[in-house]
Write a structure and sequence with these properties.
The complex is a heterodimer.
Chain A: H1 3-25, H2 30-37, H3 48-66, H4 87-103, H5 107-112, H6 119-145, H7 149-157
Helix pairs in contact in A: 6-7
Chain B: H1 2-25, H2 31-40, H3 44-65, H4 77-93, H5 98-107, H6 111-134
Helix pairs in contact in B: 2-3, 5-6
Chain lengths: 160, 135
């Protein structure tokens, strides 16, 4: 048994199922997403079923991992165990939410819809990548100024 | 009705994807984390494969149903750039987005993820509301 091969295969399958699920769910459509967020206007609540369905099956996966000593194709689990609600988490999530509301695209649907070849989503993804790089450069620079490069590295390798 | 059925079925599949990744490889199916690490060259091969699979999703949909998933983007180009920058920056700063905090974090009952989801849902709803006011 080649663990690395099955790990890569499972990752590819997981990505494919994720992208197909997004396509089926309606999440690829920014107009639908913005209608879901428009609770004071012409609200379309259907996308709540996407999150509900996703969290329930994901929770079954979580229950299964708790019965396993290690994942099927790796030595150990790599799940974050940080419980601290800090300013970075809240401010970052708020910034993300504003961007999500402005356009109706979040990272998964934005990347998946690249294969539709629409200039608008390509532009969004280019800006999103720039935003990620700007953030990670700023964090790296700040931590090197404080002499704590290792701390930032742990932070950067841990996020969801 | 069909709209709701498809939303639920799609959601169940997204959850299945997260469960597969978690049980098989022990990792969180968080798109902003995977994309961010890929940009840094960390876990690049698994990250690239996941994104490749993600992008193949709409192609598989096209094969199965004979049509592309519907996508309507009405935002102006400056708005797309601003939204993209905020989504990229914020999801890295907050260590996750709709997938990592939403699909996986909530399922793990992570305190951080519950706080993050409440925050970005509120921010997005207020943003759409204010944009409605401004017309």
């Amino acid at each position: 048994m080649n663990g690395a091969f099955f790990r890569l295969a499972a990752t590819l399958v997981s990505g494919l199922v994720f992208g197909f699920g997004l396509s089926l769910s309606g999440m690829l459509d920014p107009a639908r997403v913005r209608a879901f967020l428009d609770i004071a206007g012409n609200w379309n609540p259907s996308l709540a079923f996407v999150l509900g369905g996703a969290v329930s099956v994901s929770a079954l996966g979580v229950l299964l991992t708790r019965r396993l000593k290690r994942p099927l194709f790796d030595e150990s689990f790599h799940l974050p165990d940080n419980q601290v609600i800090d300013r970075r988490l809240i401010v970052g999530s708020a910034i993300f939410g504003i961007g999500w509301g402005l356009v109706g695209l979040c990272p998964g649907p934005a990347l998946a819809s690249l294969s539709l070849g629409l200039p608008a989503t390509m532009l969004f993804v280019a800006a999103m990548v720039a935003g990620m790089l700007i953030h990670d450069r700023l964090v790296a620079r700040r931590s090197s100024r404080m002499g704590g490069g290792a701390g930032a590295e742990t932070r950067l390798s841990q996020p969801h | 009705m069909n709209e709701y059925g498809n939303a639920l079925a799609g959601g169940l599949l997204i959850g299945l994807s997260a469960a597969i990744l978690m049980v098989a490889t022990g990792r969180v199916a968080g798109i902003s984390g995977i994309a961010g690490r890929l940009l840094q060259g960390v876990q690049a091969s698994t990250g690239a494969l996941f994104v490749l699979g993600l992008m193949a999703g709409p192609l598989l949909f096209r094969l199965v149903f004979g049509a592309w998933p519907g996508v309507t983007v009405t935002s102006s180009w400056p708005l797309l750039v601003a939204g993209g920058l905020l989504v990229g920056f914020g999801s890295r700063m907050g260590s996750g987005c709709t997938s990592g905090h939403g699909v996986v974090g909530l399922a793990r009952l992570s305190r951080r993820s519950i706080a993050a989801v409440a925050t970005f849902m509120a921010a997005a709803i207020v943003t759409v509301f204010v944009m409605g006011l401004l017309g």
